[in-house]
Amino acid sequence: MEDTRVQNNGPRSTNWKDNKKWLKIGLPVAAVALIGAGAIGYTYWNEQQRNEQANDTGHSFVDALENQEYSQLSALVSPESLETIDYTAEEVVERYETIYGGIGAADITVENVKVMEDEESEQFSLTYELHMTTSLGELEPQAYEAVLQETEEGFRVDWSPELIFPEMEPGDTVRIRMESGERGDILDRNGEILAGEGLAWQAGLYPAALGEGEEREDNLQTVAEAFETTTERLESLLSAGWVTEESFVPFAIVEEGETEEVPGVLYQQTTARTYPLGEAAAQLIGYVGEVSAENIEADPTLQPGDIIGKSGLEATFDERLRGGKGGQISIETSEGDVKKVLQEAPVENGEDITLTIDASLQQTYFNGFDGQSGAAVVTEPATGELLVLASSPSYNPTQMTRGISQEDYQAYAEDENTPFLPRYTARFAPASTFKVLTAAIGLESGATTLDESHPITGLTWQKDASWGNYKVTRVSPVPTEVTLEDALVYSDNIFFAQEALEMGPETFMEGLQKFPFGETFDLPISMNPAQITNSGEFDSEMLLADTAFGQGELLMSPLHQAIFYSPFANGGDLVLPKLELQAEPAGTSQPIEPETAETVKEMLIQVVESPNGTAHALNDLPQMLAAKTGTAEAQETEDGTKNNGSFLVFDPQGNSFLSLVMMEDRGGSEVVEAFRPVLEQTLGQE
């Protein structure tokens, strides 16, 4: 029994003692476990923090590159790595700006960015791929790798020149050798050069002949005055590293015959952009010049010294004319040896562009203005090809290209006759030439008939007293009973005002809207659309009447008029214009019926053949012509009303040309007289 008791009590005694024992052991184990778990948690948290910091630094670095905000790099590179290669953070920024800027780096994007930790070394690295375009085009993607060094301030990029371009080392540089393709020519329809390379004379300083000290200063001052430049600019050119006493230091392009003797200046023949028509086509062709800082900012592929189109078609067609640059971008050692070629591109010459313009006609029509303000447009009606776009007065494009003085430029800019303005696209009231449209719309609507006549007396007329002081005025009395033909021959404002009222605003507007008012044309020149009224409606009977004879709120350029009047030469077809010879036809429409066009054309022949016609001065020319004149009240001045005269004329038989000439401060008949010699000279040559 005793054994049994012991056996029975033994287990109870042992369990209690064991529980106590395990309690004593378990408390420290749990504490250790808690401490261990906390340590593991802290380690994990700390590792996460390091990962985040490393990633932030790596992505900030590549973001700065992608956004070309190089100044932000100075705070992201490790000082220790810079000390190793003897660089400062500011020099790092400067290297990126100089090298990437020098090669025209643009469209920089960074791809495949990775920030990774090596498990053994616990060191982070940054890898990425850089894409960019340069002045030579798209550069092959560049792969980079850098160590992210952990510092007290956080992670920083261990920087070396290899992060500009792989394989670069301290002392290496990146060099770009550029060669521009030859700029394309702008040609007329017969292959004559309107803008292209020609011979010129280059003026250059000859240092050995400038003398020393005060003599040198005096000679440079003489040169500066003779060539309208500054001594500071000349000194800057002479300070270039390549200049020796025997060097030829070019500083200006001059015309043949302007090679005057100046101390210390020599001349040599060279090539330069030339404009054979000069002032006769300046607004149309434009000119080239050296790029500005604004040009480079807009197009980073451009570099200082590049030549681009600055105005006119030289600017519009610049990319096609300029072609593509060629050359090489390479990494070079401090000894000048090529270590690696980063990019090569062949030179591409610019495209030659052939216009529909006839250079001979352009010059002849420009000469016809004899310095007076005006514009001329000549077309080939059946094709819409523009043979002449001339504007007077004008400017010298060669002078603009080769360096115009501030004084001469100001003289152009402040000239009240606005020589930079292309008047062939400037909008004016078309005046009585517009009556051809009113006549056609009246005939098409049935409101106007050939046998109808209006009893008109006197030089003024108004519908009734509701018009107040407004009256329609005509220049000279015509037959008491005025027909449509009479009204065109004599250019009678009253007849057309009455016809417009008879048609009514809706019918007249509907007829006008068959013509391309409000539309832009597919031309490489800027031009605002033609306008009927300011509001798009006829707000009064007076405005309706004024519009009928080409006044009111009508706005049309000489080019618009030549286009809008083409149906009378083309059997009712309006042919849209084109300026580039190889371009597809721009299209046609038919705003009036062929019978209407023929009827009006026959009446326009009478404007020339009738002794009473406003263009009768052309009747003795060797070719039949159809014409219409117009005189618009353009501007009130202290000396009275300033008029613009317009003159439409075309070949009604051969359909070889249609011309619209506008002259400021002239009447329509005066324009006929001024351009009669031009027609006499050119008939049969178009």
Q: If you had to describe this structure to a student in words, what would you say it looks like?
A:
With 686 residues, the protein is an alpha+beta fold. It folds into three domains: 21-171, NTF2-like, domain 1 (Nuclear Transport Factor 2, Chain: A), CATH 3.10.450.100; 200-274, Penicillin-binding protein 2a, domain 3 (Ribosomal Protein L30, Chain: A); 373-392 and 422-682, DD-peptidase/beta-lactamase superfamily (Beta-lactamase), CATH 3.40.710.10. 34% of the residues lie in helices and 24% in strands. The protein contains 20 helices and 25 strands. The strands form eight sheets. Strands 6, 7, 8, 9 and 14 form a five-stranded mixed sheet that branches. A five-stranded antiparallel sheet has the order 16-15-25-24-23, with helices on both faces. A hairpin with a 2-residue loop joins strand 2 and strand 3. The chain is elongated, with a radius of gyration of 41 Å.
Give a topology summary.
Elements: H1 2-66, H2 79-85, H3 89-102, E1 106-117, E2 124-134, E3 137-151, E4 154-157, E5 173-180, E6 186-187, E7 193-205, H4 213-226, H5 231-238, E8 249-254, E9 265-274, H6 282-285, E10 287-290, H7 293-298, E11 307-311, H8 312-316, H9 318-322, E12 325-332, E13 338-345, E14 353-354, H10 359-369, E15 374-380, E16 385-392, H11 397-402, H12 406-413, H13 435-445, E17 454-455, E18 460-461, E19 472-473, E20 481-482, H14 484-490, H15 493-503, H16 505-512, H17 541-548, H18 558-564, E21 574-575, E22 588-589, H19 594-609, E23 626-637, E24 640-650, E25 658-664, H20 668-682
Parallel strand pairs: 6-14
Antiparallel strand pairs: 1-2, 2-3, 3-4, 5-12, 6-7, 7-8, 7-9, 10-11, 12-13, 15-16, 15-25, 17-20, 18-19, 21-22, 23-24, 24-25
